[in-house]
Amino acid sequence: MRYRWKKGARLRADPQKIGEELEQIYQASQAVTAATVTEFAKNNPDSLLGQCFEWDVQKAAEARWLDEARYVLRHIVMYAEIDGEEKEVRAYWVVTVTDEDDEKPTTVYRLITDIMDDEEQRAQLIQKAKRELSQWQERYANLREFAAIFSVIESLEI
After folding, report:
1. Vertex 63, ends 132 and 138: CA angle to 5°?
2. Residue 37 near residue 43, CB atoms below 8 Å
3. Contact of 18 with 48, CB cutoff 8 Å
4. 5-9, 39-43, 115-119, range with the lowest pLDDT
5. What is the Cα–Cα distance from 124 to 105, expressed in whole angstroms?
6. For the whole model, what pTM was predicted?
7. How far apart are CA 108 and CA 154, in angstroms?
8. What are the sequence ranges of the domains in the chain?
9. Are strands 92-98 and 105-111 parallel, antiparallel or unpaired?
């Protein structure tokens, strides 16, 4: 088989070789899990797959804690009045802001109510939604059960 990284992947290892290593794992039980991949990587730290992991326990723990914080921020909801009705909405969303002092763009989480009041950040959220809709369409393009939905998406001229 031929392999490549999905668009946007932040992995530097050769995707063809990683795919072949994953095939080795797959061959053993006709399936892979995160646990079997991790086990292979631990037992083969010099493999390309092993090099995709952070083996420094402190660095790995800190990265995991950041992931957990992002998870909390993505999953907390709040109640907001929308069109005169109280609705449950995701509370925090990711936007890029520029610090006035050093003009360096930074990714932060902001309350949805504040984002909706900021024209630039609202535009960022709309762009994100459009991008995700397009990605969803690409991901499920081979499922003809969604053909009618795809037609509607295409008519939106996103």
Report:
1. 20
2. no
3. yes
4. 5-9
5. 13
6. 0.75
7. 31
8. 15-52, 59-155
9. antiparallel
- Taken as a whole, the chain contains a residue count of 158
Mean pLDDT of 66-80: 96
Q: In terms of DSSP bridges, do strands 92-98 and 77-82 run parallel, antiparallel, or are they unpaired?
A: unpaired
Say how far apart CA 111 and CA 89 lie, in whole Å: 10
Tens of pLDDT, residue by residue over 74-125, are: 999 999 888 899 999 999 999 999 877 777 899 999 999 999 999 999 999 9
**Tokens at 40, concatenated:** 């292979």
Which residues make beta-bridge pairs with 73? Answer: none
Burial 139-152 (b: 16+ CB within 10 A, else e): eeeeeeeeeeeeee
- What's 91's DSSP letter? S
Q: Which amino acid is at 56?
A: D
Structure tokens at 156: 């939106």
Question: Are the C-beta atoms of residues 134 and 158 closer than 8 Å to each other?
Answer: yes
